[in-house]
Amino acid sequence: MTKATEVTGDLSPGVIPRSPIAKTKLFFKLHWHRGAPGQATPDWVLNFCYGMWLAAFAFKLVGSSWDMSWHFMWLRDDLAPPHLINTVGTVIIMVLVAIHSYTGMGADRRSLRLMQIGLVVFLIAAPLDVINHRVNGLDLTAWSPSHMMLYIGTGIMQAGVIMGWLKYAKPGRTRTGVLIGLWTFFLENTFFPNGQQEYGILGLRAWERGTPEAEPELLNFAANQIGHPVDRVAVEYFTMPIDDWVYPLWGIGVMALIFALARHTTGFRWAGTTVAAAYLGYRLVMWPLLLGMGFPISVVPFYLLAVGLAVDLAFRIGRGHPLLTAGVGALLVTAFGYGMLWVQSQFRPWILGDAHTESAPPVAYWTAAVCLVGVGVLWTAAGPGTRAVNSWLEKRREKTALPAA
């Protein structure tokens, strides 16, 4: 190994070990020294680091999915396996943020700050959620403040990772593939609260047909929270506490904006459809696994594929004209999203007849008008808003920069 190689770490492909442990040892041997954000990063280090980010988010994804199902069945969650799996992902993230922060490699100042802020928010939210459970009992909704802090912290981290990879990865299939993966994780984290209704409606129907999924201790706990016997009112309070207008606006309107960001940042013409398909593929894998383990299952949001397709078609029709793209996008997202959600809701009566189950949560369809206007306005404002923020940040950097000697 030459002197230059020892300093820069620019190794030939044949020298780079395949084992993650060996790569970690090599990284610490060559690069464990303090540096400011934005340090030059060898390709193998960048790819290894962001591969570990994907692995960390995968652990958190599996843990959170199982955790959602767990809480529709069990009251107790201390040292629950889903929490332990999620913790593995969190520990990997803590190590990665420490490495980025100390070496300055693989992230510029802006992306690093987002990673750090997101991790801090998550680490603050985790004990707050535990304290909330200890003081107030089990939190029966995915939309509670402490739970939202967990999603927000994770989302901020993921935004930082996406920005770092965008800045440093070389154009090509690897860059696009990793971006698709990162946007899929970002979509899942943002969509996650909607699982309350997707699991909840099946939990309610299970109780109505006399085969409750939740253990008696959990049902008694939920009923006691509202001073009620264990009846339909109490079970509905536990399973379906969210208004019907929330699910479609979050699942269609907000997810459409994420698909649009994925399409814009990757430049891949079918990015929205691919991200939706990747997420649905994961849900279709988890569904039989949870069923096989005897845990509650959810309806699967197949309509997301239509929303992703609508976004991709809007970019093709708009062809570089922001206003046209946003206007067409709002129309297509609303038509495709609400149309497919309605079709999905009819699967139960069309295919299963009078079976006491559902193929979609309850939906307030009047929200289509809100979605149409909201997506159009936010999509239109995204470009000017981003440019204004970047301009402000650039001016701020210039003001805080030290004068030349």
Describe the fold and architecture.
The chain is mainly α. It folds into 2 domains: 42-169; 198-383, no CATH class. 73% of the residues lie in helices and 0% in strands. The chain contains 16 helices and no strands. It has helices at 3-8, 20-31, 43-70, 81-103, 109-136, 145-168, 173-191, 195-208, 216-225, 232-239, 246-266, 271-292, 303-318, 322-345, 347-352, 367-400. Helix 5 (109-136) runs antiparallel to helix 6 (145-168). The longest helix has 34 residues, at 367-400. The protein is globular. Residues 1-8 have low confidence and may be disordered.
Characterize the biggest β-sheet: none
| Domains (count) | 2
How many runs of DSSP E, i.e. beta strands? 0
Evaluate the radius of gyration: 23 Å
Q: Proportion of β residues?
A: under 5%
**Mean pLDDT score, rounded?**
89
Q: By helix and strand content, what is the structural category?
A: mainly alpha
Separate helix tally: 16
Order of helices and strands: HHHHHHHHHHHHHHHH
Helicity range: over 70%
Poorly predicted segments:
1-8
Report how far apart the termini are: 37 Å
Silhouette: globular
Keywords: Membrane, Transmembrane, Transmembrane helix
Transmembrane segments: 44-63, 83-99, 111-128, 148-166, 245-265, 285-311, 323-343, 363-382
